[in-house]
Write a sequence for this structure.
């Protein structure tokens, strides 16, 4: 069955960067986009961007350009997202999802990122 | 960007009753390919969102048939025919037609 296993929670200092992973299994990794979604505490969901593992092509929500960098390692079926120049506004849960191009059918368990000195 | 408007809290329902949740879009969600990419997700407490309905009215694999979606253009509804305890949570509509993809603000389903 399709599974997306994300890395563990992170506590990072303001101004630093954080890189999280999302390991896919149960399907052909290169056949689907991987999207990333942000959920700030108690709030709704925001689409950050997507990456197509086969080519490395990316699309971003303008709001997150310059903040998020998406990469993949096809050899391990793992997608990565790095967030840079972190502030308290970046404290949130981040989900990776399998993206059919138009919607997200499977989700990872989420990574909680806390930005604090 | 498209704005999807949902009521914050649904009318409280009794177990076994029908619940209805609405989602209104600021723009038509009909894609240039003719499909309407309006989806519904449920986020149960402490869990990741899960896909219930895709393309307005198609139930995702394993979703009980008490869930149904309808609507067109910019007005959409999710109905739960007989609410069960495991249906509690926040329901989000989502559109994958326009760039950037957007989610509604979520509707919390409460039991009377």
């Amino acid at each position: 069955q399709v599974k997306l296993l994300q890395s563990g929670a992170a506590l990072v200092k303001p101004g630093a960067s954080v890189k999280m992973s999302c390991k896919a299994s149960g399907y052909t990794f290169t056949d689907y986009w991987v999207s990333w979604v942000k959920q700030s505490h108690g709030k709704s969901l925001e689409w950050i961007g997507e990456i197509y593992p086969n080519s490395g092509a990316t699309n971003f929500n303008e709001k997150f350009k310059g903040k998020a960098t998406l990469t993949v390692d096809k050899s391990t079926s793992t997608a990565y997202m790095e967030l840079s120049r972190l502030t308290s506004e970046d404290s949130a849960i981040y989900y990776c999802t399998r993206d059919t191009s138009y919607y997200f059918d499977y989700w990872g368990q989420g990574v909680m990122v806390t930005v604090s000195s | 960007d498209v704005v999807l408007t949902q009521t914050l809290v649904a009318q409280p329902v009794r177990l076994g009753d029908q619940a209805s949740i609405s989602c209104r879009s600021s723009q038509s969600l009909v894609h240039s390919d003719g499909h309407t990419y309006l989806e519904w997700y449920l986020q149960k407490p402490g869990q990741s969102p899960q896909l219930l309905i895709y393309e307005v009215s198609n139930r995702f694999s394993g979703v009980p048939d008490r869930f149904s979606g309808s609507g067109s253009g910019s007005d959409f509804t999710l109905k739960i025919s007989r609410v069960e305890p495991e249906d509690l949570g926040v329901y989000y509509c989502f559109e994958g037609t326009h760039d950037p993809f957007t989610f509604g603000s979520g509707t919390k389903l409460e039991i009377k």
In short: Chain A has a mean pLDDT of 97. The first strand of chain A starts at residue 3 and ends at 6. Chain A has no helices and eleven strands.
